[in-house]
Amino acid sequence: MLFWKSTSTNILNSRNLKAVIDNQIPALIIADFATRQESFNFSQTVLKKKTIAYEFGQPGSYLGVSLAHYRNSSKEKYFTKVKEAEEQRLEIIKQSFDPVARFFQYINQQTDYSISVANESTFGSYFAGIIRVISHGTDPHVDYAPTFTKGELIVGEISTQLAWNFYASSPEEGGETVVYNQPYTFSGINKTYEAYDTQLLEGCESYTFKPTVGSVVIFNTMNPHIVLPAAQKAKIPRIATGSFLGLLRPNQIIAWS
C-alpha cells in the first residue's frame, strides 16, 4: 500500500511542486492567493452569469469550456469554443481580477518550472480558466488527459497531471475535496466517462481539505478524488476557478481546462 511522505499542509516551492508531481505529498496550498474583497468580487460576478449545466456526473454548472466534455467526439469542436470562453472569462476578470495570470506568476516566480497555456499548431491555444459552481458534490473520478487524447493532442503527451483551483466562495459546511492515494496507471485509450469504483478505495490513505476563500490548492488528479456536497442548510455556493496542469517535459508545465 502506498503512503504519502507527509500529509501536512505544504507551501508552493520547487521542491514541494515536484513532490506533488511525484505523488510524495497530496497537495500544496497558496493561502493568501487573493484578498476577501477580490474573492467576493469574483464570485458575485460569476453569479450574475448564466452557467452551463454538466452533462454527466452529479448536478453542477460551469462557465468556459472543458476538453473532457469532448472526450468522445471531435476535438475540433472544443477549439471552436475557446475564443468565446476566453472572451467571457475576460469579462469576469474586468470586474474582479485575473486568477490565471496571477497563478502563472506564482509558478514562474516561486518555482523553477515554466508554465504556459497549452497550444496546438493546428487548432491554436487551449482554454485555461474554467469556473465551476459545484455545491452538490462530484462522482469519485480520475483526471488524466492521455486516456482520451494520446496520439491526437499535445495534452495526450504529458506524463503527470495536476489541477489548481482558486476558491472564490465556499459553503459554510461541506464542500470538502477528498484525494485518495491510489495513482492511476495508464493502460490504454478509454473515451467513455466512468466514475471511479469506490470499492477500490476501501482502506486507502486519503487527504481532505476544506476550500478556504482566497486560497489556491494544487493536487495530483491522477489520484482518485471527490468533492463532497455542501450541507443542505448551506446558503453560500462553492465557486472555484482553475485548470489542469500537465508535465510535458522536465520542469515544463502546460495548462488547459
Automatic annotation (TrEMBL):
InterPro entries: WelO5-like. This is Proline hydroxylase. It comes from Xenorhabdus budapestensis. The lineage of its organism: Bacteria, Pseudomonadati, Pseudomonadota, Gammaproteobacteria, Enterobacterales.
